[in-house]
């Protein structure tokens, strides 16, 4: 029930070609569109939560999972804002990372250099 990050399930089967990544549908708004919409509102708290979730996910992918999404751009990141059932609690934020077909890992030296930026 907390804010979360989602990677759509990869579809396997006879209708899918091995060289084409097909993922299950995930509902959401492109992050760039959402940012444009937010510029018309003054919900700084929500924007901070989205930023914290995005940065946390990105840094976890790099530092913990050693996973680099090599095609990360606003079209490959969706956001869903889900109202809570009680109608009182802040909405739940879901970030959806799409198209993880082009990924890489950092080599140990590159990873150490990247980590050193934060020291």
From TrEMBL:
Q: Which InterPro entries match?
A: ABC1_dom, ADCK_kinase, Kinase-like_dom_sf
Q: Which Pfam families match?
A: ABC1
Report which superkingdom the organism of origin falls in: Eukaryota
- Sequence ranges assigned to domain ABC1 atypical kinase-like in this UniProt record: 5-118
PANTHER family in UniProt: AARF DOMAIN CONTAINING KINASE 2, AARF DOMAIN CONTAINING KINASE 2 (PREDICTED)
The molecule here is called: ABC1 atypical kinase-like domain-containing protein
Organism whose genome encodes this protein:
Vitrella brassicaformis
């Amino acid at each position: 029930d907390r804010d979360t990050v989602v990677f759509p399930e990869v579809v396997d089967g006879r209708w899918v070609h091995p060289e084409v990544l097909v993922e299950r549908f995930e509902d959401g708004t492109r992050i760039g569109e959402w940012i444009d919409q937010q510029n018309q509102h003054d919900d700084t708290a929500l924007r901070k939560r989205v930023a914290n979730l995005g940065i946390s996910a990105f840094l976890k992918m790099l530092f913990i999972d050693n996973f680099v999404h090599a095609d990360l751009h606003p079209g490959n990141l969706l956001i869903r804002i889900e109202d809570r059932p009680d109608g009182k609690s802040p909405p739940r934020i879901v970030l959806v990372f799409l198209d993880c077909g082009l990924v890489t890992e950092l080599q140990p030296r590159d990873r150490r250099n990247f980590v050193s930026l934060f020291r």
